[in-house]
Amino acid sequence: MLSFLATTTTANTTGNNDVNDKMATSTVQFLTFPFRRWRKHYTINPPNDTYHVIYLGNVLTIIAKGEECLEKPLSLIWHTYCNRKRAELPMKLTVTRSGLKAETKQQGITEYWSHRITYCLASSNLPRVFCWVYKHEGKKMKPELRCHAALCKKPSDPYRIAQTLEHYLRAALQEYRREKLYRQNTRINALTIGQPFTGPKRKLLLQTGSLNFRPPGGRSKSAPRLFAIDEENEYPEEQQVFDLVWEILFINAFLLTYLDFVTF
């Protein structure tokens, strides 16, 4: 009997302690709820997608957009690849927010900027082939359209590349237009007020749409190239004045000698 009472008393004590602990925990949670921090993860800049492909080559084309611009060039590229007599050219193709970036061991890194990519497509006739049309600068700065093609490892890779690239191209164009309109409105407001055209530094630093749509000036083909400058010997100012005086005296002496010879 005594053991039963002792067991019952212990069980009641344990139950009361559990209830008190739960009440204390709930009270603490209620009081700290406004100050509680919820951890969330956001991916601001996801990494660029990189694909290991085989570069098939490029061919001139006339039409810039549409599936018609890829029928004959793509068939010619594929026919040449099937009858190839040289080794394949592996390439690492990266889809960036400014276009495409291709890297090979032979040619290094080649960038295809978004404002020059006129069309891209994952061919339905050739499931593993991704192709794009790019406006190059030919001889004498003459623009020429070329169709490029690459062979992917998986049949789903061309569709992913085309979908991601189209999304990035559309976003870069919209951002470029938005920033251009903002700069135009700011310039008009500055002229109306009569103040110089200046904008917030934060706005200027965050303007990335134009950089994604067009290459910066230092990386474009029209940028001035660096070359060696031959430095001339710099003399002090006194030495230059001294040399000038001697030249004047020499000229005067020559003129006097010439006049004496003529009069004689």
TrEMBL record:
Q: Which InterPro entries match?
A: Adapter_Engulfment-Domain, FAM43A/B_PTB, PH-like_dom_sf, PTB/PI_dom
Tell me the superkingdom of the source. Eukaryota
CDD domains, A to Z? PTB_FAM43A (cd01214)
Q: Which SMART domains match?
A: PTB
- The residue stretches assigned to a coiled coil in this entry are none
Domain (PID) ranges: 46-182
Pfam families, A to Z? PID_2 (PF14719)
Q: What is the protein's name according to its record?
A: PID domain-containing protein
Cite the source lineage.
Eukaryota, Metazoa, Ecdysozoa, Nematoda, Chromadorea
